[in-house]
Inverse folding.
């Protein structure tokens, strides 16, 4: 099956990295290799790109796409939360740039059998890494009503989370919920018709919540930010594209904290907590897609790019 993948905020992301021809860069969410291709095209023979992805299919596509640069590319099947051990295994102690394109890639959504989309009927899967055993089906059929409510409320931000959880539990008491369309119909039944008519697809927020829960997406992001910043060489940059408010809030708040980590009371004349800034936020406001990009690639509409630059040489 052939997929068309359009990289979001492509020029903006690559430009944000201030690429040096002899630098070392890490693509933590390699996907189809769209951003990686543009990074590699700016590297000289001594430059290097490390691509990380947990999706076997993505690695196959990216490997093919990056063949013209195979002398400067290393691809590792892993989760970017393990970026430190990945780099240590390659004998790399510091890099000049790291970038992430979070969320689900276009070809993961478009491959119906992956179960990410609420628009096509497929088994409830949603695994980004097929080596994992737990699937979306397991969550839907095994989580308690309280756990389902918490997940849909926190990760889907759906005001009808409690009712959706109740409907899921009621439906599965008759038979296991097996497919995406079965779940979509259950969610529709939990949301009043007059509300469904005014909002987008009724299942969008619940599907997002299940995917985030299953793949631990927000935990992985939180657990990786400090490590990625610490791995940057002085002047190196961390560029992150987010697609919903939960991700963006984590990135925005963390960047602010590492820029101004002091916890001393404001009335103290000097800092005594000893916490030092690791750098500065390059993007005071996030970089957004242009009107032209949003027209040609509708999936870019919710994208935001934030950039942090490492400073100092005290590490």
């Amino acid at each position: 099956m052939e997929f068309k993948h359009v990289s979001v905020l492509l020029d903006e992301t690559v430009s944000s990295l201030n690429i040096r021809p002899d630098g070392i860069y890490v693509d933590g969410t390699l996907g189809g290799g769209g951003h990686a291709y543009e990074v590699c095209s700016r590297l000289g023979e001594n430059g290097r790109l490390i691509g990380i992805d947990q999706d076997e299919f993505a690695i196959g596509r990216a490997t093919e796409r990056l063949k013209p640069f195979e002398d400067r590319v290393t691809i590792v099947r892993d989760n970017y939360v393990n970026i430190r051990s990945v780099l240590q295994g390659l004998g790399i102690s510091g890099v000049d740039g790291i970038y992430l394109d979070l969320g689900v890639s276009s070809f993961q959504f478009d491959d119906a059998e992956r179960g990410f989309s609420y628009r096509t009927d497929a088994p409830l899967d949603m695994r980004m890494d097929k080596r994992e055993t737990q699937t979306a089906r397991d969550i839907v059929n095994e989580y308690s009503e309280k756990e389902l409510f918490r997940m849909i409320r926190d990760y889907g931000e759906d005001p009808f989370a409690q009712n959706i959880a109740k409907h899921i539990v009621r439906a599965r008491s008759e038979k296991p919920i097996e497919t995406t369309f079965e779940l979509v119909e259950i969610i529709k039944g939990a949301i009043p018709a007059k509300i469904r008519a005014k909002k987008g697809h009724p299942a969008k927020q619940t599907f997002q919540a299940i995917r985030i829960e299953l793949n631990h997406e927000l935990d992985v992001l939180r657990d990786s930010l400090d490590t990625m910043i610490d791995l940057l060489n002085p002047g190196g940059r961390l560029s992150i594209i987010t697609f919903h408010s939960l991700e963006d809030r984590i990135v925005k708040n963390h960047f602010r904290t590492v820029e101004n980590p002091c916890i001393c009371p404001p009335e103290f004349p000097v800092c005594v907590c000893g916490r030092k800034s690791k750098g500065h936020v390059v993007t005071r406001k996030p970089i957004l897609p242009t009107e032209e990009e949003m027209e040609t690639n509708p999936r870019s509409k919710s994208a935001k790019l934030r950039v942090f630059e490492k400073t100092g040489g005290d590490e």
